[in-house]
């Protein structure tokens, strides 16, 4: 009797617990859903590059310092590569070998080549685990009686391609284990400003003899007037249908080449990768990230190669990602518990998802929850918004007027000071910890900050890992790691709500796998 009562009690206590991460390998359909989500909703719709050496792409001359934007959003929806390209149909990947690891250029949501996302393992594990828990624990319906087919899928313009409106849903507990605006022009310029930097004027006598085709330009503003669309990447796709997969625009004074086919993308990201390995040099990134001292924005060279090696072998290795398993499970458990607390009532799931992503990144990067971490997250949010901000002085680099009237630099410098002071406090607190020295000596640092400090003191690196480099790397993890993964998760839930057939199939798989594991545990 006592043994039976204990088992029954444990069974009911476990109903709201989170199944372990190790069960994810059995969720085959869930993985297809995530692939399909990244195809139609890449977190970053375009991949920015800068030409380092004059070359040709598809027979067109590309000048040095030209900005190159690869419209991965358009490629992922191109009917030349995808049947029923606008349809959300995860099963397409059963018979398609394309993956998002940089080898299939019709499917590059995380980039490709030397600068592709190194945090793929971290991101996919977080997305798969969190999505599985939401599908396992809850049934979902739209608030206010809205029908799934009427759910809007409008995107927002910014650093990442989020939903314009937060996803408002009503969670209903799964009980199978229980007894019975800005102006349009300004908006577009906000987005454009992410992807280019100072360069010589497009009308230079040193330009390539056979530039890519493109629409007619106006004096001073170039093609800005032709980009008056609230979603920049949509407009680029429309123009590419007329002018071809390799097209040149002039954004103010800045020559910008638009790539809209997998074949041309392969030329830029693989065949001639060394010519396009640099990212554009942007004012915001230079100020906020310590003159581009982190891996994501550093110029190509020995220092960048050293950072890449550190990232692959130390910061984002499979072993390091596995070491964060308990963090993910604890944070997701709290996340699921907070949804249970609001069961039956409308919740802003988008807000909760982004809060979860920030929490996981914070603990993986700088350690346990603390007041300093809580104060740091709002600063990071402001930095993320600034990366999608307007900088007219860069659109018109020769204009002294824009340099004088622009207030962007002072705002960026103020944000940098606030972030720098907070990071100084976090690092000083870590070094002052009495157990840190022995921990670092044994190379047992659990979070990314500990790993970086350990490398700084004991790594014997070819290039010096300065404190500024450490700060820039931590900031990049916050601004890049959490937001892009959470954006993908938000869109995955949106597509599942809009496509009940896919939702039902996914929940059936998740619940069958997790319930079988639970039941097996009680048998033994």
Overview of this structure, please?
By secondary structure, this protein is α+β, with helices and mostly antiparallel strands. The chain has a single domain (2-516), classed as Cytochrome p450 (Orthogonal Bundle), CATH 1.10.630. It is built from 20 helices and nine strands. The chain has helices at residues 2-13, 28-40, 72-76, 120-137, 184-192, 232-243, 262-271, 283-288, 302-315, 318-323, 325-340, 349-366, 371-386, 392-395, 400-405, 408-432, 436-441, 448-458, 467-498, 500-523, and strands at 47-50, 55-57, 60-62, 67-70, 138-142, 168-173, 246-251, 254-259, 347-348. The strands form three sheets. The protein has a four-stranded mixed beta sheet. A three-stranded antiparallel beta sheet has the order 5-6-9. It has a two-stranded antiparallel ribbon with strand order 2-3. A hairpin with a 2-residue loop joins strand 7 (246-251) and strand 8 (254-259). Helix 4 (120-137) runs parallel beside helix 11 and helix 12 (349-366) packs antiparallel against helix 19 (467-498). It is globular, with a radius of gyration of 24 Å. Residues 1-13, 176-205, 440-445 and 520-524 have low confidence and may be disordered.
């Amino acid at each position: 009797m006592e043994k039976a009562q204990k088992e029954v009690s444990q069974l009911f206590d476990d109903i709201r617990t989170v199944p372990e991460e190790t069960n994810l390998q059995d969720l085959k359909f869930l993985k297809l859903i995530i692939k399909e989500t990244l195809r139609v909703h890449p977190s970053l719709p375009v991949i920015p590059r800068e030409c380092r050496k004059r070359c040709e792409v598809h027979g067109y001359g590309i000048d040095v310092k030209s900005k190159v934007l690869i419209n991965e959003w358009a490629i992922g929806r191109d009917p030349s590569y995808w049947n029923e390209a606008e349809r959300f149909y995860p099963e397409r990947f059963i018979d398609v070998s394309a993956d998002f690891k940089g080898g299939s250029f019709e499917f590059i949501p995380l980039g490709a080549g030397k600068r592709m996302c190194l945090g793929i393992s971290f991101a996919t594990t977080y997305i798969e685990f969190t999505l599985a828990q939401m599908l396992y624990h809850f049934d979902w319906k739209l608030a206010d009686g809205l029908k799934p087919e009427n759910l809007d899928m409008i995107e927002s313009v910014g650093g990442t391609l989020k939903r314009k409106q937060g996803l408002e849903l009503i969670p209903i507990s799964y009980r199978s284990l229980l007894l019975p605006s800005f102006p349009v022009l300004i908006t577009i310029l906000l987005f454009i400003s992410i992807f280019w930097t100072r360069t010589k004027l497009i009308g230079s006598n040193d330009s390539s003899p056979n530039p890519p085709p493109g629409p007619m330009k106006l004096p001073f503003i170039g093609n800005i007037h032709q980009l008056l669309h609230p979603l920049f990447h949509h407009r680029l796709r429309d123009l590419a249908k007329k002018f071809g997969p390799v097209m040149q625009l002039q954004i103010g004074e800045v020559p910008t080449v638009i790539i809209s086919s997998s074949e041309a993308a392969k030329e830029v990201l693989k065949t001639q990768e060394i010519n396009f390995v640099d990212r554009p040099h942007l004012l915001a990134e230079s100020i906020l990230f310590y003159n581009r001292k982190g891996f994501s924005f550093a110029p190509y060279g020995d220092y960048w190669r050293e950072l890449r090696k550190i990232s692959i072998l130390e910061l984002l290795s499979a072993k390091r990602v596995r070491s964060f398993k308990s963090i993910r499970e604890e944070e997701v458990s709290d996340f699921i518990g907070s949804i249970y607390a609001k069961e039956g009532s409308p919740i802003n799931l988008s807000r909760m998802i982004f809060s979860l992503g920030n929490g996981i990144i914070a603990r993986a990067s700088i350690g346990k929850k603390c007041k300093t971490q809580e104060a740091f997250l709002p600063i990071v949010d402001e930095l993320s918004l600034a990366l999608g901000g307007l900088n007219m002085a860069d659109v018109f680099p020769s204009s002294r007027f824009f340099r004088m009237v622009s207030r962007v630099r002072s705002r960026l410098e103020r944000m940098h000071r606030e972030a720098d002071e907070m990071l100084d406090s976090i690092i000083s607190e870590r070094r002052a910890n009495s157990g840190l020295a022995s921990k670092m000596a044994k190379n047992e640092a659990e979070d990314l900050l500990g790993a970086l400090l350990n490398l700084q003191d004991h790594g014997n690196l070819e290039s010096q890992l300065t404190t500024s480099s450490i700060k820039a790397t931590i900031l990049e993890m916050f601004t890049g790691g959490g937001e892009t993964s959470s954006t993908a998760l938000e869109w995955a839930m949106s597509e599942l709500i809009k496509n009940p057939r896919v939702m039902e199939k996914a929940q059936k798989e998740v619940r069958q796998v997790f319930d079988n594991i639970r039941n097996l545990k009680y048998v033994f």
